[in-house]
Amino acid sequence: MVMLNMYNEDKEVTIYATTEKLRYNPKPLSCQDKVIDESDDENESDSVCPSQESYHSLHSSENEYELLNYGETYAYSKMNPFMKVNSKFLSVIAFRRSLNHYALTNEFEYVIEKSDLTRLTACCGDKKCKWRIHACLTQDGVTFEVKKFLETHSCTRSNKSGNKHATQGWIADVVTDKLKSEGDVSSADLKKWLMHTYNVEVPYMRVFRGREQAYTDMYGKWDDSYVNIFYFKQELEKRNPGSVVEIDLQIVGEKKHFLCFFISLKTCSKGFLAGCLPYIGLDACHLKGKFNGVLAAATSIDGNNGMFPVAYGVLEAENTKSWTWFLTSLQKAIGTPNGLVISSDMQKGLELAITQVYPNIEHRECIRHLCSNFKKHFRGDFFMTKLWEAANTYSVSKHDKLLNEIGTKCADAISYLNENHKKIWSRSKFGTPVKCDYITNNISETFNSWVGDIRYKTVLDLLDAIREKLMERFDNKRSKNLGEYQICRSSDNKAEVKFKGYRWDVVLDEKKCICRKWQVTGLPCVHAAAFIAFTREPSWEKYVDTYFTVDKFKEAYALEIGPMPGKD
């Protein structure tokens, strides 16, 4: 039996486990764990020492937790570490990890006098100070327990001049939660945060490497993701037959260099062709991981004006070559639907790529992007107001009138628009087949926001995370379409309608539901509506009381009131 208690205020989780002895034999610590002292990280090497990897991966990333097992308490806290006699730790590494946090929080340095598989003794770095701690292995062969502890210091605080216990592994450990909650935080900001939170000065490069290690611990190694990219492609095509999955490589000698990746799942491409508007927004956002690159996406609109991802992928950069490759792959997946419209923010190289791959489609430019560029050359609320009005109007004559007003104020402004913004940006020039009057590319921004919290992952994990989000989104949309009411028919006119453990009897030909709302109002209740929609050919008007019909409405006002002569 396991019981979890969570406290948001203190960010603590307490886990109670049975006292039945676990059936496993814990392995002794390795020699590596035995001999390496993480506090002795004076050099600024680019490598990550083995003990630092163990140091971080041993524990969860929760700020604070307590684990009770065999009736004993193991305690660890990042933000408020504590030490006392009889405190128990899962291993010598866990003890040293907590000791590091304790030293940094209390602003002192310590020196390890003795350290092996069975014991650890440390004293204050100031030889005149009496602070001292001793912990040793307990009878279970794994747990470390504090036996002696003199916690009073007579020395001065030492963090501001740099604390040797602020190692790369420690930095990776303490910044993990911050990176998870806030996303991409620069090394400079983390350096300031460490100073503010722990009052410790840390060299910039150590913070940088600690940040990189934290990302590696959270999302895996970036280099490994490229090694497995072909297996991912193969598995994706196997599990989703008919999907278009492409990889672009550069071969230099015997080496293959990854450039671009494109994915259009059959579910997305066929769904777009079958049920979405022939409208696609193109955009790309920068990846926030170790390597440069952008996440590109082709996004459409469903019948409910919702975002519908059609294709996505990773490009080496925003240039004509990459965008042409992406659009060629997109054309392979969806072809060129009748009335296709592509909207974009006119990113670098994208305009030429669209012209090359889709030369005959309607290409719209986002008015927000246009205005952003326009006001760099022509300032004033007058211009912005008239431009937005010209973009919003459906009338060709009104559009021309508004541009003439701009031209009257400044003829160069019209010349600038004609030379630099030749694509369609006004509703007055939109074609009619697409049935979409969007003048911005907000649908692409919606996609960027949708994937914002996973753009820090490795390339492989990022692509797979988007696939998982698509699975969840499509499932939610299907569930919404099917409805949450379950219909159990007993005949063509009678059924039980179930919802969240409740049920109602509905009789269609009698216009009756056990909830009585249908009988009282004359309009089908939600339970009746679910049953009516379930039938093959629902005829809604026959289930509405005659009082609400057009004929009844006409009858109510059919008779005339005779006119009266005046008082004269």
Automatic annotation (TrEMBL):
Membrane-traversing stretches: none
InterPro entries found in the cross-reference section: MULE_transposase_dom (IPR018289), Transposase_MuDR (IPR004332), Znf_PMZ (IPR006564), Znf_SWIM (IPR007527)
Domain SWIM-type: 502-536
Domain of life of the source: Eukaryota
GO molecular function terms noted in the UniProt entry: zinc ion binding
Keywords: Metal-binding, Zinc, Zinc-finger
Alphabetical list of PROSITE patterns matching this protein: ZF_SWIM
Protein name stated in the entry: SWIM-type domain-containing protein
Organism (species): Lactuca saligna (Willowleaf lettuce)
